[in-house]
Amino acid sequence: MSVEWFRVPSAGSVVHLYQEREIRNEDQIPSYRGRTALSPEELKRGDASLRLTGVRASDEGRYQCLIQSKMWFDDASVQVQIKGTEPVISMEVPHRAGWVSLLCESKGWDIQPDLLWLDSEGHSLPAAATETHRDSEDLYTVRRHVFIQDRDTNTVTCRVHLQDRKLEKETEFHITAEMFPVPRWKASLAVFLPLAAAALIGCAVLTHRYREQGNLSI
């Protein structure tokens, strides 16, 4: 039996060849070297799925699989489309009291996508400029910061989308009051007021005692 994966429409563009229980990739496209594999166990079950690692932007396109034996023949084709990761939202160290700094990041896009921050009603939020990085595999990573003020919104959404493909991915992030740092003067009051109250109560108790003992003249 033989299983051959190749690119379409290029003739003779071998991606992976399994023949007579051996891998025969002498004529394999150089860019696929060391990145393709078939599972022998899955082949026994009739599954000839190709595993492709180290995905690159150039891997996008149509692939065809030919399966042959002495008794039968079959083929199938598949369209491979490179999609980035789900957006990941992380909270960073606040740059000032009353604000929260959030970062959204998405990786692995073959085309540079747009990245938007939205409030709980779906309206676009003012945000920093989008940072873009293109790696050695020609795949894009996009990152964007947004600064949220206390009571602005209780939920934000990071959306990454490709308009031409009508493709989008998004992640929600719920904001709570505990995420906002307390200003120093409020923190000082939180310590001072209980102490002041305790001191006043102490003075009132002493005054009451002196009055009872007749030692205090008013």
Please describe the topology of this protein.
Blueprint (H helix, E strand, L loop, with lengths): L1 E7 L5 E6 L2 E2 L12 E2 L2 H5 L6 E2 L8 E8 L4 E8 L7 E5 L6 E11 L4 E5 L12 E4 L5 E10 L5 E8 L4 E8 L9 H30 L5
Antiparallel strand pairs: 1-2, 1-6, 2-3, 4-5, 6-7, 8-9, 9-12, 10-13, 11-12, 13-14
Describe this structure in words.
The protein is of the alpha+beta class and 218 residues long. The chain folds into 3 domains: 2-80, Immunoglobulin-like; 88-179, Immunoglobulin-like; 187-218. 16% of the residues lie in helices and 39% in strands. It has 2 helices and 14 strands, in the order ββββαββββββββββα. It has helices spanning 40-44, 184-213; strands at 2-8, 14-19, 22-23, 36-37, 51-52, 61-68, 73-80, 88-92, 99-109, 114-118, 131-134, 140-149, 155-162, 167-174. The strands form 4 sheets. It has a 5-stranded antiparallel β-sheet with strand order 3-2-1-6-7, with no helix packed on it. Strands 8-9-12-11 form a 4-stranded antiparallel β-sheet, with no helix packed on it. It has a 3-stranded antiparallel β-sheet with strand order 10-13-14, with no helix packed on it. A hairpin with a 4-residue loop joins strand 13 (155-162) and strand 14 (167-174). The protein is elongated.
